[in-house]
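Deliverable D4.2, example record:
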Amino acid sequence: MVNDLLWQEDRVSMARGLEVRVPFVDQPLAGVVGQWGRQALMPDGQLKGLLREVLQPVLPVLILSRPKSGFQVNAPAFFHQQLKPLAKVWLSDARLRETGLFNPVFVQRVLAYRPGKATRWHYFMLYFMLMSQLWLDEFERA
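Output generated by the structure prediction step:
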């Protein structure tokens, strides 16, 4: 994923005009808003115009007027500061051999890479492998 944990979700949902963010998947809200026309939701063709208008009293102008940007995360820093202790347990050779989901040699090789721009994708991969291991333990062994 290109330096963005929401990259695939955003691309897939936008390709079909589907809103998947939490406030917008509420069915009663979607039912009401779905009855409104385009002009009500996007006055003067302004994307998210009504949403911006409604939030104007609670959000600073700087937030409401900033350009769109992706959800950026420093994957190497996050991994080393928050996830490394979990990875030592859940991505250990013994645990990986026990579940058989990932190749332990490959995982250890990825864990050995030094943080850098060229290896940021590796940290997303480590994150997904770690979460997969935790998910297996939580739901498959229960």
